[in-house]
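Lab notebook, entry 600. We have the chain sequence and a SMILES string for adenosine-5'-triphosphate, and the next step in the workflow is to get a structural model of the bound complex before anyone spends time on docking refinements. Request logged below.

Task: model protein plus adenosine-5'-triphosphate, output structure tokens.
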Amino acid sequence: MLKPRAILTLFILILLLSPLLLPTYQITLLNYIGLYALVVLGLVLLTGVGGMTSFGQAAFVGLGAYASAYLTTTEQLPDWLAWAGHSPWLALLVGIALTAVVALILGALTLRLSGHYLPLGTIAWGISLYYLFGTVEQLGGHTGVSNLPVISLFGIALDKGEKMFYLIWAVLLLAIVITQNLLNSREGRAIRALKGGQLMAEAMGVNTFRSKLVIFLISALFAAVSGWLYAHTQRFINPTPFGLSMGIDYLFMALIGGVASVWGALVGAGVLTMLKQWLQDLLPHLLGSDGQYETIIFGLLIIAVMHRSPGGLWPILMRFIPVKLKSRQLLQEDGPAVRLDQRRPPRQGDLILEAQQVTRRFGGLIANNNMSLQVHAGEIVALIGPNGAGKSTMFNQLSAVDTPTSGEVRFLGQSLKGKSSREVAAMGMSRTFQHVKLLPGMTVLENVAIGAHLRGERGVLSAALRLERAEEQSLLQEARYQLQRVGLGDYLYEEAGSLALGQQRILEIARALCADPCLLLLDEPAAGLRFKEKQALAELLQKLRGEGMAILLVEHDMDFVMGLVDRIVVMEFGEKIAEGLPQDIQTNPAVLEAYLGGAE
Ligand SMILES: Nc1ncnc2c1ncn2[C@@H]1O[C@H](COP(=O)(O)OP(=O)(O)OP(=O)(O)O)[C@@H](O)[C@H]1O
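Result returned:
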């Protein structure tokens, strides 16, 4: 079994030797693969990891290319830009700044769009920027800009493809490392939660819009740097490679390579570039040179690959490479970690949560009517009621996922009016979900670590450069501790999706505990648990109560509830019909009526 590091070293060695062994023509091809892969890497992050489809990446490539072309070839630059003239490196800085500004504006405008509107938005700005490149006179119109200077590095002029090769591939490898570092960090977990876990992530305190903007920005910057490298490799540019058709090609490369993997970017760029070249050489011999047959065959091949392997080629390739690159390796302890700071717990008996006459209407339907309840520190309260009684709706009002039509929820003395579920999480409320919400492909440990999101503060940059290792170790140690506490210590490195449903519910409790809350909202925690697991859960909740935690749970399992909780609030048709000690509720006629239809 080969170690990933050995494969990487071999790969770098082959790269280093390539310009010495391969003919120029092939080096040119490899340069293109490197340039494309850099753009596709951004798409893997944006589309594969973040779940946002962009057809407009080629426009960002154009921004990087044109910024540098303009600055390095224009004789008389405006005074305020003169400092950046004639040096490709300074032009790169300007290109990066320009792309960042454009990406932030476009991202702010389009990333809030949902469904098909986002891809349509990317097509719109992709086309707009393309026409801009062709229209602006200073950018050479459709003729383009020629005579770009060569890049010099440490006094060496990179005037040949063989020399640019080293720069292109070094930048690409650096970008891959940065991306991988980022994905294996606190910010990375938040980013990975974007696809399929946004509601959960927000409840854990993640600002999902910010995470989207971050990957949008990074992918735009990768594209712009690729554009800069392209411009100074070709030393001539025109708008053609920055149009929508290239934007679609980049997306295809990501899909073919494997949109969920960083290395898939390289595979996708490599396979598609080689294939296109090969078809362009081969088909004219077979079919004549009249039609663009390669485009048709190319399209059919893409459909075939997508059909056979929707995850792209990388997962197939991994089956043949004798290497086990599991996130386990990335999560190993570096040594003892500092324990995270803890919130000062409220005093036993303090009022933690209070709902005052909460009403929630959905059109004509009143899901919650005049509901009031209280939860104190060191108390377990159950919210019960028949199906459709309005318990989940109430939970959503209490955790600021939804806003009451009238009435008020107060948490730790503060009204939740106008607060987001993220802010409420930061105040110390943490929850689990009726329908388990976790990221099935991620390890149990990483899933739980998302709960500790608000307890870390190191940002994207330190994650990309691995400067946040101490904090990361503390976050993972906390996740490990909470998993051991709930009895899932043996499953740290399993994929969360492989756990039984009952264990997934327990995982959600560990995740909620990771946030160091003073109030736990548990939505049907015992559903799907076996008897022994229920006993263990009850013990855990009792222990937490002993430590002063306030717990509110919705539960259908009456045996579990009666033996555990201090007080019960019963709902029917959106209203509170009873409240009291378990033994009183068990004999309450209104409750018996609601549950058993009037049986005594
Ligand atoms: N977003 C919504 N729009 C319209 N109606 C809704 C919405 N959410 C809930 N309801 C309705 O409100 C009522 C209460 O639903 P809710 O899910 O809160 O009940 P519940 O007590 O949690 O039920 P269960 O035990 O089956 O989960 C139901 O009639 C439901 O159809």
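Notes for the group: The pocket of adenosine-5'-triphosphate is lined by residues 362, 365, 367, 385, 387-393, 434 (CB under 6 Å). Worth checking against the assay data. The longest strand covers residues 351-362.
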